[in-house]
Design brief:
The protein is an alpha/beta fold and 185 residues long. The chain has helices spanning 46-55, 57-68, 80-105, 141-154, 162-171, 175-184; strands spanning 2-8, 11-20, 27-30, 36-41, 112-115, 122-124, 130-133. It has six helices and seven strands; from the N terminus they run E-E-E-E-H-H-H-E-E-E-H-H-H. The strands form two sheets. It has a four-stranded mixed sheet, with helices on one face. A three-stranded mixed sheet has the order 5-7-6. Helix 4 (141-154) crosses helix 5.
């Protein structure tokens, strides 16, 4: 990975370039901890990447500003110590919620884990292992439920098709509002 910087008005923004074999286009992500990562396909030139980042500089700055005013300070913390401090409580909460909500669905799964995920709230592997971002404990309860139900539904549908969203809607009729809200966090 390579580090570059971008000047936006009087502020220097540093970003990391990540080369991906699977990427088909340029992509920029701004994380809650302030990291900015630009992913590029292997054959994309550095010149094209820099023009792309330049075209996104105001969006990047706006996202960084939004992160500074996050209502939940704990969501911005990203140290190993923070993870170690909260992982047991997060795992207990997630296990309780998975058991509660899976009573409605009855799907089988292998393991439940919490991890210091950087860009997601959860994931469901093809082996039916459920992983959750430990920071789920800092979300309002409705959003905790949404994250858990979302991943449980991936046990049946490993995609975001209409069938998947219908499954989510069985438990959470207001899932569209919850989905929009969690994307803003």
């Amino acid at each position: 990975m390579k580090r570059e910087s971008l000047l936006v008005f009087d502020q220097t923004i540093h970003y990391t370039i990540r080369i991906s074999e699977r990427a088909q286009r340029l992509r920029v992500a701004v994380y809650a901890d302030g990291d900015v990562v630009v992913t590029k396909p292997r054959k994309t030139s550095l010149e094209l990447l820099k023009r792309f980042v330049e075209s996104k500089k105001l969006w990047i700055q706006r996202k960084l500003e939004e992160n500074k005013i996050s209502p939940i300070q704990e969501l911005q913390e990203s140290s190993q110590e923070h993870f170690d401090q909260h992982k047991d409580r997060a795992l207990e909460l997630v296990k309780q919620k998975v058991n509660k909500w899976n009573n409605r669905y009855g799907y089988s799964f292998e393991e439940i884990a919490v991890k210091p995920l950087k860009s997601r709230w959860g994931s469901c592997s093809s082996k039916h292992n459920l992983s959750f971002n430990y920071k789920v404990i800092f979300l309002p309860e409705q959003l905790q439920d949404y994250v858990v139900v979302h991943e449980i539904c991936h046990l049946k549908e490993q995609n975001h098709s209409q069938r998947f969203w219908r499954l989510v809607g069985k438990a959470l009729p207001d899932y569209q509002d919850l989905n929009k809200f969690i994307k803003r966090i």
